[in-house]
Amino acid sequence: MISRHALDAPLGWLGSMLRRGSERRRYAASPYAWLFQPYLGNELVALSCFAHHGVISVAAVTLRQHQILTSGAWVAALSNTASGSAAAERRHQLLYSVDTTLPLNIESLRSLIEFIGNRPILGWQLEQRLAPLEQQLRRHLGFGLPNARVDVTKLHQRYLRRLHPQAEQQAELACALRCWQVPSAAPQRALEDATASALLYLHLRRDADQVV
After folding, report:
1. Nearest-angstrom CA–CA distance, 136 and 139
2. How many CB atoms lie within 10 A of CB 186?
3. What is the pLDDT of residue 211?
4. How far is CA 207 from its chain centroid?
5. What is the spatial distance between Cα 35 and Cα 22, in angstroms, rounded to a whole number?
């Protein structure tokens, strides 16, 4: 079992717990109630999110123990027709290699959260990356992702400080991958970014287990 409390980001932890508790009670009788229940399995979901000009490219990849299941990933660009444009959609397709474009509405967001479920989520600069998606979830569904979270950036920085206190902290995922010598495709596309975050997470957790 993966602890929801143990994986939450330390900053804003109490506020997040209070908000999730309130939302859990509010949606207890709704079809979304199961999303707020503690997760009892051994899977996580690596998330990547890029938002520009009314379009949000999202990739969600299941991480099962030491396997990253890219073949069943959820990958799509969510386009808000009110502020998005055909040019912005094409730009996302080119930049983040997202072939599927869906309207940013209740149906597409429901499809995403049903894929994620109540499994813990991880990603690089997770809170920052998720902010646009969370805003749309609250707008359309009334709540943000209630899942336990692992910000791989903070995990990387904590382990790096422990081993090399004088090392310069880098904010780029590609730099972190090179730092730990994790072989990965350049994390410039949505699916590659999510997969690279998962690979780095596995590497850091494996090193931590060896130390223990």
Report:
1. 5
2. 11
3. 42
4. 22
5. 14
The CA angle 132-205-133, to the nearest 5 degrees, is 5
Q: Report which of 175, 116, 179, 183 is spatially closest to residue 144, judged by C-alpha positions.
A: 116
pLDDT digits (tens, 9 = 90+) for 42-71: 999 999 999 988 899 999 999 998 899 999
Q: At what angle do helices 126-140 and 106-116 cross, to 10 degrees?
A: 130
- DSSP states of 170-187: ---HHHHHHHTT-----T
CA-based nearest residue to 60, from 143, 94, 49 = 49
User: In whole angstroms, what is the distance from residue 148 CA to residue 120 CA?
Assistant: 5
Q: Where are the domains of the chain?
A: 152-211
In this structure, what token pair is assigned to residue 30? 């709704």
What stretches of 65-130 adopt beta strand conformation (E)?
67-79, 101-103, 121-123
> What is the 8-class DSSP label of residue 14?
H
| Assigned token pair, 191 | 């699916």
